[in-house]
Prior knowledge:
Blueprint: H1 2-34, E1 37-45, E2 62-75, E3 78-89, H2 97-120, H3 125-131, E4 137-148, E5 152-162, E6 170-180, E7 185-187, H4 199-216, E8 235-237, E9 241-246, E10 259-264, H5 265-268
Parallel strand pairs: 3-4
Antiparallel strand pairs: 1-2, 2-3, 4-5, 5-6, 6-7, 8-9, 9-10
Amino acid sequence: xxxxxxxxxxxxxxxxxxxxxxxxxxxxxxxxxxxxxxxxxxxxxxxxxxxxxxxxxxxxxxxxxxxxxxxxxxxxxxxxxxxxxxxxxxxxxxxxxxxxxxxxxxxxxxxxxxxxxxxxxxxxxxxxxxxxxxxxxxxxxxxxxxxxxxxxxxxxxxxxxxxxxxxxxxxxxxxxxxxxxxxxxxxxxxxxxxxxxxxxxxxxxxxxxxxxxxxxxxxxxxxxxxxxxxxxxxxxxxxxxxxxxxxxxxxxxxxxxxxxxxxxxxxxxxxxxxxxxx
Length: 278
């Protein structure tokens, strides 16, 4: 009897050691699964290969720089991962503006990714309990070239997001405008285009032209009549004129397409600064 008990005790000790080893290996596996991973690379993409997300407009075929990052936790599809992706087309304007803008946007994307990594490592049990068994979140930034000239670059930026706390995806469209002054690259604001002494008249003219252009596009909405041009309005510099950007939910509901109103440069020429780079 005593020999049997000793044998059982030996089995139990062996089983306990195996359990401890399994738990330690599982903890290591979980830590490995939750560790942030990221990379950046250059590659060629075709139209439609920019992203699998349906709200993103496919950009032109060409070479793209990509930054991809995964944070969060997932084991056997259980848990939550947060994916961030930044995609920039090769900027083939004449140097040095192409290099300067590319480096600026790359650093901007790396900074966003680093902030997301830092936030993912916060030890907050309340956050984990609220967000563990939910869908993965995704955040994508990609760019589309509008104007690529020796001294001026204008890019349309798409910020797609589907956070775990949302019931559907969303997208924000921004205008990113840059100028090269011979020595440095700087961002262009809407107010940088117009003579300060003519702001009021110029903005009133832009408002009138924007309203008419939207109506001509059959985007009439009662709210269009109340359009007010904000100095922080999203815009693009194009060869055709000044393009004012509106988000997809501006006219006609959330899933309506994003709209653009164009004001020809010849309508604005008398209000522009003499050194305006357009």
